[in-house]
Amino acid sequence: MCGLFGVVRSPFAGDPGRASDVFVTLGALAEERGTDAAGVALLGGWPGLAHDGCRVVKGRGRFSGVWRTELLAELDRAPVAMGHTRWATKGSPAEAANASPMLVAAPGARSAGIVGTHNGDVDAGALRERFALPAPSGGTDSEAVFQLLAGRHGPSGVTAALEALAGRTALAWVERDAPSQVHLARAALSPLAVAVDCEQNIYWASNPRWFRVAQRYTRVRFATIVMLREGTYLRVGTERAPGRRDRPRVLAAASFVPTARPADRDDRVWTGFTDADRSRDQATLRHRLTTPDLAPVA
């Protein structure tokens, strides 16, 4: 299981360092879900960043070994920051192409592509065959998922892609044409929680406990912590307009029916969860199961 975490900043927060401290704390806590590789993506429209406003830093090993304090100034300015800790199940941990966040191009020239993080395991070969996806640059199933999502717009287009996945999946991704908005999705099993602090910053993480720990060790207080149910898609962030500053909020939401394979149910899905959090989440599961030939059944 991999670890996802990130933040969409509120322009009304008095001290950006508070949300940055939470982000780094979430990264350290996410090591419990993977130490094969780690990475962060800092997104925004200011000059001086690589990849036209998206800086990705990643490497082998723990988040604490990949994170660098000299990134703090850029993190404080980033409207969106996302992170990932990897537990390698497919693709060598020695290859940078297999680490996340991943930059994936969209088909055609209508979009600059996406930056994404994934926790889970799906059948990449089946996706490539069904949707004629481009040749991979690495060996992960994550890349196939992002290729499927790249260029999909609107809740119906996104959820149609999410319903095509069979396996464990939680996702956070950003379309590089809209870097102030984050797409969050929980398909089958892989957990994803969302929190809002008292300054209206929005966060996500693979374990709701991490928010409670971060609250103890940072200056941030959370107004809301919510575990997303399976089959939930959200687009959160701000809609930029000249002369206007908005607080981050839910811009779009949709539900869909996720699909898991019989072997996907594994208690390691809830690595690091408290017994109470695990029990509450397991009581809400609503995915379909595939038959041996991968045809979904209710």
UniProtKB/TrEMBL annotation:
Organism phylogeny: Bacteria, Bacillati, Actinomycetota, Actinomycetes, Streptosporangiales
SUPFAM superfamilies in the cross-refs: N-terminal nucleophile aminohydrolases (Ntn hydrolases)
PROSITE patterns given in the database record: GATASE_TYPE_2
Protein known as: Glutamine amidotransferase type-2 domain-containing protein
All copies of domain Glutamine amidotransferase type-2, residue ranges: 2-239
Gene3D superfamilies: Glutamine Phosphoribosylpyrophosphate, subunit 1, domain 1
Domain of life: Bacteria
